[in-house]
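Tokens as discussed.
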């Protein structure tokens, strides 16, 4: 019979996957659900990228590739990092994997030992703490505040570092906050990091191009070039190019760490799909018109959602500078009662109430390590978003 390993007991299935499953179930049972849980673009993968994949299949690019990716893809990744951040990486400083998610997992697996601490500012992407636990490290959660825009401050970083700290995970633009660290803020964090040579930074930049500030989110690797060898930049094509199902992510960093990731990759999946690699190379190398067209669409949805939420008493949206999420403070709803006399004790209750009462699916802040909040995704059409916000207003209006 099935006997789970100890490491399985340390982790749980991703809450976002669980939310998606709940929405599917309710829909299958015939309920109309306004789904704001999705963590993927509603756009289709651009035609040009699909054509590149089809051409690769026809050309027989259907075999194993090098563990660290095809030379063409590595070249395209280097070009993209040079274009967005002005950083020159060598070929040996690049690797690829089945999504940014797999690359992050392998990076932690390659470096985290029992007793190592990994600093994770909250609110955080749901997978970081469990990935650390799966690799027998200890996630150390550092809560952030509204005053700093839900970003880690240099004082907090200094106070959190101990001699067990191996990594700081920085995610900018952040999921779920949409917060972008400015170059000045990164520079101030770099000053602290210079005093602690044992700490490396996993810089998750998967949303870097989905930025409403007019330029891509800055990277610590570019802001503090002297720390470059301690920064692992992780990114991918899922979000920027609407390619979640292609499963292609990448990392750039110190060649010794990249080599270690390659060793693990050689014993896990050998390499990501050759076809996805061809598509990703086309995405990163060709004209960047899809990003230029999609970002203003996300921005318009963000503005509509923020305006709608701001008019609702008891909820406070945090205006995101990037990504496609809104993290909504719902402290004003806690303690109030629903029409059927249940008291909303926490953000999980708020989420369940919105789902039950008006069929709006969002994800509770507790999944992201900071409560009471809920996360709305605006990677869905504007009609669904406005209808859902109206429904939230109605549900909140029915509370006592
Ligand atoms: N990092 C963050 C912050 C994310 O939100 C996601 C996806 O939801 C990922 C990484 C992983 O994306 P992928 O594995 O599709 O590249």
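Sequence:
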């Amino acid at each position: 019979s099935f006997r789970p390993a100890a490491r399985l007991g340390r982790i749980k299935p991703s809450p976002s996957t669980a939310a998606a499953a709940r929405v599917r179930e309710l829909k299958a049972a015939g309920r109309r659900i306004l789904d704001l849980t999705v963590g993927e673009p509603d756009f289709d993968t651009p035609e040009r990228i699909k054509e590149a994949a089809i051409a690769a299949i026809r050309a027989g690019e259907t075999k194993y590739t090098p563990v660290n990716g095809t030379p063409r893809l590595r070249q395209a990744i280097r070009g993209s990092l040079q274009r967005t951040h002005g950083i020159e990486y060598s070929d040996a400083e690049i690797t690829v994997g089945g999504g940014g998610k797999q690359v992050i997992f392998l990076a932690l697996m390659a470096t985290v030992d029992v007793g190592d601490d990994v600093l994770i500012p909250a609110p955080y992407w749901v997978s970081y703490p469990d990935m650390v636990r799966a690799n027998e490290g200890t996630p150390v959660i550092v809560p952030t505040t509204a005053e700093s825009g839900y970003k880690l401050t240099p004082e907090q970083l200094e106070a959190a570092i101990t001699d067990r700290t191996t990594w700081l995970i920085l995610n900018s633009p952040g999921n779920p906050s949409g917060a972008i660290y400015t170059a000045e803020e990164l520079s101030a964090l770099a000053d602290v990091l210079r005093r602690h040579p044992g700490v490396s930074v996993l810089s998750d930049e998967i949303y870097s191009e989905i930025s409403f500030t007019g330029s891509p989110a800055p990277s610590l690797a570019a802001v503090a070039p002297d720390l470059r060898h301690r920064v692992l930049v992780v990114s991918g094509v899922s979000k920027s190019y609407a390619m979640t199902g292609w499963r292609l992510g990448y990392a750039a960093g110190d060649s010794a760490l990249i080599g270690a990731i390659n060793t693990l990759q050689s014993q896990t999946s050998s390499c990501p799909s050759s076809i996805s690699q061809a598509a990703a190379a086309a995405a990163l190398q060709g004209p960047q018109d899809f990003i230029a067209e999609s970002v203003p669409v996300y921005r318009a949805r963000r503005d509509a959602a923020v305006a709608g939420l701001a008019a609702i008493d008891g909820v406070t949206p945090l205006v995101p500078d990037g990504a496609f999420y809104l993290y909504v403070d719902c402290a004003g709803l806690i303690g109030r009662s629903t029409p059927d006399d249940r008291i909303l004790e926490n953000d999980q209750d708020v989420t369940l109430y919105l789902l039950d009462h008006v069929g709006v699916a969002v994800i509770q802040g507790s999944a992201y390590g900071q409560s009471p909040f809920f996360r709305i995704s605006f990677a869905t059409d504007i009609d669904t978003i406005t209808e859902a916000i109206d429904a939230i207003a109605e549900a909140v209006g029915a509370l006592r």
